[in-house]
C-alpha cells in the first residue's frame, strides 16, 4: 500500500501542506475527512472511545493507533501503553508527538507478548478485512491476553445503509460478499489513489457469535447514537 492516510497524518504533524483525505467505499459516495480528526483530544472523542479509555488498565496495546490520540491520553495518565500500526508514517508521527513505546507491525505478527487491555477502536473490526478472517484474528488476540485480560473493540451495524421495502425487509446487494458489513475502501490524498482495501464492519450479534465460537465471552458495554457499539471480549 502507498500509506496515503499515514502520509496525511505525518503532513499534518509536520505542517507539510496537509490536505483532507477523500474516502469512498463500494456502498457510499466520496467524502472528505478532516485529517485533524486523527489528532483529537479526549474531550473531542466519541463517548464510546471515552468509555473504552476509562476501562483501559494494566499493560495496554493500542492496535491501529493512527496519530496516537488514544495512546497519548493513556500515557499521560501514567498507563503503560504500546502503540502499533502498519503505517510507518503514523508511527513516525506518534514518536514526534512523544509516544514512548511504538512499533510498525501487523497485529498478527506480534508474538510472545501479553497485555491486560487490547484496544481496537475507530471500527476496530475493520482490520479483519472480511468476515472469514474473524476467527483468525480472534484466536490470535487470545494469545496476547494476560489471565483476566480484556479486548475493547468497537464497530457499527451497517444495516441502516440499505433500502427497506414496504414489508420492513432490507434489500442487500451482496455482490460476491459473504456479509453486508464487508466494504472495499478507496482513499485519495493529494491526487494519489491508494490501492483498494477490505474493511469489515460487524454488527454486535455477529461479533458475539464469533467470540463464543472461539472461546471468548462478549459483553456489550455501550451503544452509540449511530448504530455503533463498544464491546468487551475476554477468555471464559
Automatic annotation (TrEMBL):
GO terms for molecular function: methyltransferase activity. InterPro entries: Methyltranfer_dom, SAM-dependent_MTases_sf. This is Methyltransferase domain-containing protein. Keywords: Methyltransferase, Transferase. It comes from Myroides pelagicus. Residues 58-157 form the Methyltransferase domain. GO terms for biological process: methylation.
Amino acid at each position: 500500500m502507498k500509506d496515503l492516510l499515514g502520509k496525511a497524518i505525518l503532513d499534518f504533524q509536520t505542517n507539510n501542506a496537509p490536505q483532507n483525505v477523500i474516502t469512498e467505499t463500494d456502498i457510499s459516495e466520496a467524502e472528505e475527512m478532516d485529517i485533524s480528526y486523527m489528532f483529537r483530544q479526549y474531550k473531542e472523542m466519541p463517548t464510546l472511545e471515552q468509555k473504552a479509555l476509562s476501562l483501559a488498565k494494566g499493560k495496554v496495546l493500542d492496535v491501529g493507533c493512527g496519530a496516537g490520540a488514544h495512546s497519548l491520553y493513556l500515557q499521560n495518565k501514567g498507563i503503560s501503553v504500546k502503540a502499533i500500526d502498519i503505517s510507518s508514517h503514523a508511527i513516525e508521527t506518534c514518536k514526534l508527538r512523544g509516544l514512548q513505546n511504538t512499533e510498525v507491525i501487523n497485529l498478527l505478527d506480534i508474538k510472545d507478548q501479553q497485555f491486560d487491555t487490547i484496544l481496537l477502536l475507530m471500527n476496530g473490526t475493520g482490520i479483519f478485512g472480511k468476515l472469514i478472517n474473524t476467527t483468525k484474528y480472534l484466536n490470535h488476540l487470545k494469545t496476547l491476553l494476560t489471565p483476566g485480560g480484556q479486548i475493547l473493540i468497537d464497530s457499527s451495524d451497517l444495516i441502516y445503509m440499505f433500502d427497506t421495502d414496504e414489508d420492513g425487509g432490507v434489500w442487500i446487494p451482496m455482490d460476491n460478499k459473504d456479509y453486508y458489513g464487508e466494504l472495499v475502501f478507496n482513499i485519495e490524498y493529494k491526487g494519489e489513489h491508494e490501492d483498494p482495501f477490505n474493511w469489515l464492519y460487524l454488527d454486535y450479534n455477529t461479533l458475539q457469535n464469533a467470540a463464543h465460537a472461539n472461546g471468548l465471552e462478549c459483553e456489550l458495554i455501550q451503544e452509540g447514537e449511530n448504530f455503533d457499539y463498544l464491546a468487551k471480549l475476554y477468555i471464559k
